[in-house]
């Protein structure tokens, strides 16, 4: 299951990302407000994955007085504002920082421990050879010395050292894979691997303590049996030489500063760090957006203030008062400088902007000249024309009738004169 997840994360990183944004482009996405308020934010040097999706992460180092995490999608260049996703990213990032800023930085990397483990196994092999020679020389002369107990505990030490080495190999393999695929899921898994390695290391120390205690017990036998010099001195010298298992330096370092306790201490603070980091981002993001909304509204409101007398003289006194009332609530909320006030600004900025824009538009419209009606025509209207046409038609008809009657009368008179 773990390997399957890693395989898909690996493919996601190799898949061509034509629209992927760079770290510098992601930084621009934060905007001037967030960037200027947090000049010490550090960027990760490569994308950090969650659910196979890459993000550019910006953060304050562990131990810094300020805590904040900002993330930008590698593919879409969008600021992550979803709280659940940002919390999961931040928890993974915290694990990542423990790995880099503590485990690696203080010399507990799997690579360095593996080198120590290799050397220790070689030393233990040499001790086997030395112990065999020592037994062959001393045991026949002093059969009551329990040298078999030294061999037995050396066997146990080698077995535990091999188990420690095997765990380190697993951790080193995971570290190598993780270095190319930073992810929230992977950082947690790798940290578990380191804890397992540290546990195996301290089990090795416990067995080593038992081994050296056995050597001390044999040296006590030498003293109690009153073995004379020079055998006494030679036996003790050889036994002291057998104490070396190639673990002295790492043993002393681990006893002085137990990495298990250090990692446990870091992890005990993770949830609070995540809460603080995410809450800090949410508040600053909210305040930056509220600042932008306030500044935009202020520009419009100042224009209304400058023209207030003229606007009122144009008959918009009640509208001006309504805008002033809205603005008073808006500005009071903004000046609270807290989350509730900033949220009020964001929630009410659109309606305030609408009120101011509507007032401005109506005032501007009132300044436009009133259109004058077109002058009435001085010519005859349609009814007059109709009357004239009717009169003319009647006149023409009467004339034609008169002419016809006249012609008939003239024709009748001509006929009478012929008789």
Task: Write up what this structure looks like.
- With 419 residues, the protein is mainly alpha-helical.
- The chain folds into three domains: 2-84, no CATH class; 110-257; 288-366, no CATH class.
- Helix content is 75%, strand content 4%.
- The protein is built from 14 helices and four strands.
- Strands 1, 2, 3 and 4 form a four-stranded antiparallel beta sheet that branches.
- The chain is rod-shaped.
- The N and C termini lie far apart (145 Å).
- The relative contact order is 0.08.
Q: Which helices and strands appear, and what pairs or packs with what?
A:
Blueprint: H1 2-14, H2 23-29, H3 31-37, E1 42-43, E2 48-50, E3 53-59, E4 69-73, H4 83-104, H5 110-138, H6 147-180, H7 184-224, H8 231-242, H9 248-256, H10 259-268, H11 270-306, H12 308-335, H13 339-366, H14 382-418
Antiparallel strand pairs: 1-3, 2-3, 3-4
Helix pairs in contact: 4-7, 4-10, 4-11, 5-6, 6-7, 7-8, 11-12, 11-13, 12-13
């Amino acid at each position: 299951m773990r390997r399957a997840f890693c395989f898909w994360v690996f493919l996601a990183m190799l898949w061509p990302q034509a629209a992927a944004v760079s770290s510098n482009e992601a930084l621009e996405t934060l905007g001037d407000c967030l960037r200027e308020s947090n000049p010490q934010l550090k960027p990760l040097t490569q994308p950090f994955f969650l659910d196979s999706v890459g993000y550019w992460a910006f953060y304050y180092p562990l131990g810094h007085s300020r805590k904040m995490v900002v993330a930008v999608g590698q593919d879409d260049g969008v600021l992550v504002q979803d709280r659940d996703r940002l919390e999961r990213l931040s928890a993974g990032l915290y694990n990542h920082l423990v790995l880099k800023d503590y485990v690696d930085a203080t010399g507990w990397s799997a690579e360095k421990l593996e080198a120590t483990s290799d050397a220790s196994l070689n030393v233990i092999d040499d001790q086997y050879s030395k112990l065999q020679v020592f037994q062959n020389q001393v045991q026949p002369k002093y059969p009551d010395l329990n040298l078999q107990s030294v061999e037995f505990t050396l066997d146990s030490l080698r077995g535990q050292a091999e188990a420690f080495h095997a765990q380190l190999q697993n951790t080193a393999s995971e570290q190598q894979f993780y270095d190319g695929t930073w992810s929230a899921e992977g950082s947690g898994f790798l940290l578990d691997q380191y804890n397992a390695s540290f546990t195996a290391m301290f089990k090795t120390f416990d067995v080593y303590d038992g081994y050296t205690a056995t050597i001390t017990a044999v040296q006590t036998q030498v003293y109690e049996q009153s073995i004379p010099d020079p055998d006494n001195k030679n036996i003790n010298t050889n036994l002291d030489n057998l104490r070396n298992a190639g673990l002295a330096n790492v043993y002393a370092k681990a006893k002085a500063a137990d990495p298990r306790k250090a990692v446990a201490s870091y992890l005990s603070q993770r949830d609070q760090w995540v809460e603080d980091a995410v809450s800090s981002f949410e508040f600053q993001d909210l305040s930056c957006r509220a600042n932008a909304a306030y500044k935009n509204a202020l520009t419009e409101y100042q224009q209304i203030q400058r023209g207030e007398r003229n606007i009122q003289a144009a008959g918009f006194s009640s509208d001006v008062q309504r805008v002033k009332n809205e603005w008073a609530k808006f500005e009071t909320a903004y000046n609270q400088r807290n989350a509730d006030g900033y949220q009020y600004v964001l929630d009410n900025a659109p309606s305030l902007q609408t009120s101011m824009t509507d007032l401005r538009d109506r005032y501007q419209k009132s300044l436009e000249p009133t259109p004058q009606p077109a002058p009435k025509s001085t010519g005859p209207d349609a009814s007059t024309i109709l009357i004239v046409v009717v009169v003319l038609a009647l006149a023409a008809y009467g004339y034609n009738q008169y002419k016809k009657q006249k012609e008939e009368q003239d024709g009748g008179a001509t006929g009478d004169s012929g008789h």
